[in-house]
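User: I'm writing a short report section on ligand binding and want a predicted complex to refer to. Could you take this sequence and adenosine-5'-triphosphate and write out the structure as tokens? A short remark afterwards would be nice.
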Amino acid sequence: MSLSLTVTGLTKRFRGLLAVSDVSFTVPAGKIVALIGPNGAGKTTCFNLIAGVFPPDSGSVTLGGRDVTGFRPDQMCAAGIGRTFQIVKPFAGLSVLENVLVGALHREKRVPAARANALAVLELLGLDPQAHKLAGSLTLPDRKRLEVAKALATQPQLLLLDEVMAGLRPTETDAMVATLRDLNARTGITILLIEHVMRAVMALAEQVIVLDQGRKLAEGTPAQVTNDPRVIETYLGHDIPEGAAP
Ligand SMILES: Nc1ncnc2c1ncn2[C@@H]1O[C@H](COP(=O)(O)OP(=O)(O)OP(=O)(O)O)[C@@H](O)[C@H]1O
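Assistant: Sure. The structure tokens for the complex follow:
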């Protein structure tokens, strides 16, 4: 249920702006890795390149050793990549279960089987008691969980999570961290997450990649990167993100 991800020399320009510049890293199969860095560092652009929203100008993306560079989003999904978006947008007028079913039907065309898969995903995320509520009526923490559930419903082997802790209170963040740890332990799924909430990064990630101005600035364990003078200078030191302080 898990695939490694390797990006090599990933580069993307928007007109004159070098949004991602020669970025290389690996997320080993089954591991949880975080992508951090200041606003505009190129984190979401990296996700968009990995998810196939647009192709890189140069560089490659390999999934479990298979070159998927330049695949479209539906092809990336079929290859095993699932993602969430920074802005959560459930179908508010559909139930939680129906929202997840939309994703499940991408993988399984028979409705009863897709429904069973969707329910299993809700159970994994602790959302099963809410299955029949309208998505629009959920609290923010549960909407964030639903976003993860929608991505999981396509049965990915690599999950890209874009700021799923943003806006959560510390206790809600801790609950999401526990859920994601449990998901990783139970399914073995590989997870790459963009996160500003350092409390969550420290608790979840085995490796952290730091981007700044499109380039990879540092890489290491959470303890290594939070003690790296370059990371403190460009990111942690100026405006200490929530939960990063000792
Ligand atoms: N579609 C686009 N067209 C033009 N410029 C873009 C586009 N997407 C991103 N950029 C620019 O690329 C740079 C990197 O943006 P990106 O969203 O990847 O950063 P980020 O690290 O995810 O930031 P944040 O933490 O604020 O989400 C920024 O300067 C941004 O304005």
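A remark for your report: Residues 170-187 form the longest helix (18 residues). DSSP finds nine helices and ten strands in the chain.
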